[in-house]
Known about the structure:
Layout: H1 2-28, E1 40-41, E2 44-45, H2 50-56, E3 61-65, E4 68-73, E5 79-83, E6 90-95, H3 116-123, E7 128-132, E8 136-143, E9 148-155, E10 160-168
Amino acid sequence: MLRRILLVVGILLVGLLAYMGVRWVKDVWPIEDTSLKNEGIGKLAIGMDKADIGRYYPEFTVRREDEGNAYYFGDEADFIVRIDAKTNKIVCMELRDKIDEQDFMTKKGIGVGSSLADVKRDYGTNYRKKNTEIYGEMIEFQDSKSNQKIGFGSDYENNRVTVIVIYDYDTYKFPY
């Protein structure tokens, strides 16, 4: 009887570990590249110099952080651009909300409020689904040639984009 109980518990434990392993692998397994060359939000792109921020958008304000400066457009929760402290280059951009009188979109025309169908039409189907602590469910595309990833969070009730994150994954570890 004890052997049978141990066998059942062992099988359940192995099944649980296999399930957790598959979920982990889905988040880190390589996906086919999607070209993100020259991708950005508005007039800004990953790798641009921090001086370009002020040139294109003088309305940005700066706040110092441990890893470098973060530039905010409008409210600190709307559009954030992070700068690498060593290179003074843009390493991450987060567009979290529409901003009045600004047309912040990706180079392919996707912005907050766009449909997920538009994202998949413009970026393709080579994406990874991620469940994140900050933004919930996201789909993420990557380009290993430019070392960039772009993620689109959405409210799955309306299938609309609620956040866009683009970053250089070699330089900046985005805290999903």
